[in-house]
UniProtKB/TrEMBL annotation:
Signal peptide: none annotated. Residues 1-125, 234-350 form the RCK N-terminal domain. It comes from Frischella perrara. The keyword Ion transport applies. One of its GO terms (cellular component) is plasma membrane. InterPro entries: K_uptake_TrkA (IPR006036), NAD(P)-bd_dom_sf (IPR036291), RCK_C (IPR006037), RCK_C_sf (IPR036721), RCK_N (IPR003148), Trk_Ktr_HKT_K-transport (IPR050721). PROSITE patterns: RCK_C, RCK_N. It comes from the Bacteria. Residues 145-229, 370-453 form the RCK C-terminal domain. Pfam families: TrkA_C, TrkA_N. This is Trk system potassium uptake protein TrkA. GO terms for molecular function: potassium ion transmembrane transporter activity. Keywords: Ion transport, NAD, Potassium, Potassium transport, Transport.
Length: 453
């Protein structure tokens, strides 16, 4: 594919790396920052164009006239929208994907985006909305450190840490069927001291293992209890931040939980208080030890730091954890910080960049791949694919899972067929239009998966 990426920031650069290293895509990146472009060109086989992303002349010099896709991920919503409009009206680029951060642009009362009547964007990526959804899912399942849903939430991938107290810890993986005979679950990966272990029936689960499993939503807690002592549901939640993620999250949680929100700006705090019916809005600094003490942070079940400042998020979460908060979730923009975080201090670190990349790849990848979830800082993935054809035209359809030659480290975790979720059934014959949920320990093996499709 010939793809033009607008913006050489963290997301644009990471996306360019994915697309260049995975395939022989023809990738061009446009930005006004010369240093960022030079760095990209030195590391990867791609073209760079220096200039404003909305200028037709600049887009033309990037080959817009015969481009297959334009991906707009600059820091300006308006620039992204205008560039998509020009790409459609002037150059007739068939696929346009844009990152739109401001929730006001996605207001259902004022529909803006439509190929036929509006701003012509095929797919909108809203990082704030994706992050809010992800955190809300983590709140529902207290033991989970990572969670992702597939095929209209019919099947979930969950990652938990195995601790002493879990019934399966110290036992072979095959015993899970004895403990939970009526629960369909597939353990697709185990990471022990950062090393991938492909799980088989005789694999012994050890305390400290990171275990990835696939199951249906109603069985998540039952499976989690096999790997750790089940945590009590959250009751008291404290949110640090006054941006769209914090406010939207508070709105979603305030009916079912006791929610407090800390905002540093007094005017913004007053505006937020008017929007939230059952949330206690506090004016102050979330890393203020005295404020946290007054608000009894030691009784908090979950502290969520989602300001736009990485350092503030990390410091406030570490302080809250030291003062007695049971669990902390932190939003971290910088990749370098993600790699430095001590997992024993910060329970869950969420990367907006990785979340956005996952959503972008879901729309960019071809060959029947309909959803991508990046894991482990982008090194691993879970993908949802659709099998098409018959035994003569497809390498998947008409075959059992055992017959399919998957790349090393790849595991089919579930098959979704209409309303039926089929998990851990090696003898099931794959049919046309089945949705397959596949775990990849190395995302680079996506090329082999696409050949199967």
């Amino acid at each position: 594919m010939k793809i033009i990426i607008l913006g050489a920031g963290q997301t644009g650069s990471a996306l360019a790396e994915y697309l260049v290293t995975e395939h022989s895509n023809d990738v061009t990146v446009i930005d006004e920052a010369t240093e960022k472009l030079q760095s990209l060109q030195e590391r990867f086989d791609l073209q760079v164009i220096h200039g404003k992303v909305c200028y037709p002349q600049v887009l033309q010099s990037a080959g817009a006239e015969d481009a297959d896709m334009l991906v707009a991920v600059t820091n300006s919503d308006e620039a992204n929208m205008l560039a998509c409009q020009i790409a459609h009206s002037v150059f007739n680029i068939p696929q346009k994907v844009a990152r739109i951060r401001a929730s006001e642009y996605s207001d259902d009362d004022y529909p803006l985006f439509s190929i036929d009547n509006g701003i012509p964007i095929n797919h909108i990526i809203s990082p704030e909305k994706l992050i809010t959804q992800h955190i809300s899912q983590l709140v529902q399942y207290p033991g989970a450190l990572q969670i992702a849903s597939f095929y209209d939430n019919k099947v979930y991938l969950v990652m938990v840490t195995a601790y002493y107290g879990g019934a399966l810890v110290g036992s072979e993986l095959s015993e899970i069927k004895e403990h939970l005979p009526h629960v369909e679950v597939k353990v697709v990966a185990i990471y022990r001291q950062h090393r991938f272990i492909r799980p088989i029936a005789t694999t012994i689960i050890e305390a400290g293992d990171l275990v990835y499993f696939i199951t249906t939503p109603q069985n998540i807690k039952a499976v989690t209890s096999e790997l750790q002592r089940l945590e009590k549901p959250f009751k008291r939640i404290m949110i640090s931040g006054g941006g769209s993620v914090a406010v939207t999250l508070a709105k979603q949680l305030e009916e079912d939980y006791q929610v407090k929100l800390i905002e540093q700006n007094i005017q913004n705090a007053e505006l937020i208080a008017e929007q939230l019916a059952n949330t206690t809005v506090l004016h102050g600094e979330s890393a203020d030890q005295e404020l946290l003490s007054q608000e009894q942070v030691e009784l908090t079940d979950l502290f969520i730091a989602v300001t736009g400042d990485d350092e503030s998020n990390i410091m406030s979460a570490m302080l809250a954890k030291r003062m007695g908060a049971k669990k902390v979730i932190v939003l971290i923009q910088r990749q370098a910080y993600l790699e430095l975080i001590n997992e024993s201090v910060i329970d869950i670190a969420i990367s907006p960049q990785l979340t956005t990349i996952s959503a972008l790849l879901s729309h960019i990848r071809q060959s029947g791949i309909v959803k991508v979830v990046s894991l482990r800082q982008g090194n691993s993935e879970v993908i949802e694919v659709i099998a098409h054809g018959d035994r003569q035209t497809s390498k998947l359809v008409g075959r059992t899972i055992n017959e399919i030659r998957l790349p090393s480290g790849a595991t089919i975790g579930a098959i979704v067929r209409g309303d039926d979720v089929l998990i851990d059934r090696e003898d099931i014959v794959i049919e046309d239009n089945d949705h397959l949920i596949i775990f990849l320990s190395d995302r680079k093996s996506i090329n082999d998966i696409e050949k199967l499709l």
